[in-house]
Hints:
This protein is an all-alpha fold.
Amino acid sequence: MDINKERDDDQHWRSAKSEAGFKSHLIIYLVVNMGMWLLWFLTDSVHTNGIPWPLWPSLGWGVALAYQNFNAPHRNNPKKAL
């Protein structure tokens, strides 16, 4: 019984750790992206015809962040991972 409880505790610890890591990455993503969009808006938005440059890093980083979010709960069970 102690072995199962220890394994469950370890899984809960890993799950909480990955959730905390995702939250910190999300906050960093939001702060940095707000800064990039603000920089673009203040310096280049009037002169740009077309797609704003902060869109590309926002999309790329957003996809990576979404992958982290969807894959993190399943790290302990590889059969459920994306």
